[in-house]
Amino acid sequence: MMMMAANTLTTARRSSRPSVRTPSAQRCRVIKNNASSKSLVAGSASRDDSEDEVDFGRRAVLSGVPLAIAGLAMNTQQASAIQGLVAGRLPGLSEVDSDGFCKYTRPEGKSGGHGVGWSEIPPYSFKVPDGWDEKPTSIADLGGAEVDLRFQGTEGDLAVIVAPVLRFRDVGFNADVNLDQIFDGGPKQLITGFAPEITGEPLEDENLLRMEKVTANNLPKYQYEILGGDKLPGHHLLISATATRNRVYIITVNASANQWRKNKDKLLKIAESFAVSKA
Q1: pTM score, two decimals?
Q2: Over the stretch 117-151, which tens digit does the pLDDT of each residue have?
Q3: CB–CB of 56/25 below 8 Å?
Q4: What is the Cα gyration radius of the chain?
Q5: Pairing between β-strand 236-244 and β-strand 247-255 as defined by DSSP bridges
Q6: CA-to-CA distance for 170 and 32, rounded, in angstroms?
Q7: Distance, CA of 264 to CA of 266 (rounded, Å)
Q8: 181 bridge partner residues
């Protein structure tokens, strides 16, 4: 009897524990107003609109290649995160719009893999085609702790780099500067110094197909189109960069020759939509 009572008590204690669910990355989905309708999820079966999580697909880690070609993605719902450094993935993707894109906004409080000593990061945003998957980031990856996010889809892949301003220029701690204040030489200075980390080789002038300066959220933004060299033959790389407070934000969008030929407009939309909220 005593043994039976003990077993009953153990079972009761186990059943009383709250179930814990780890955050799951999600894919973009179409949300319909009709509560009884089914949500459409790229690459998975339909589910009820009330479901909070969507299956996240493959979780492969690509390594041993230039930063621009490493795989990427995060699909989530609109976040209402609590301020504070919260490790891991948090919701960030909107619903699918009429053009088949979701808007990703970095959740406030997401710490990523940047380690101890990083203050909270002003949110950046960009649009991504429905169906792109998040790929895990690691400080062991090429790019280390500066790689904040990766996405990958059939059209190509992307990475977002968040780097301290002090890596590029000594402006003192807790500075609040934009790209024009960091790079006296303008867009050419940034891409000349940073391109080898993306492509794995120095940037040749003939491979710099486009370079321009625009404004997003009242911040200077540099945009580039690069043709891959010997290590990325035929690849097209789209790069957008901006800066605010004490960080430089860079998104790299990479596509093979075939992906570029079929999806040029989509890839351009990703890179050109990249922006950071001015703190």
Answers
A1: 0.70
A2: 456 788 999 999 999 988 888 766 656 678 999 99
A3: yes
A4: 21
A5: antiparallel
A6: 50
A7: 6
A8: none
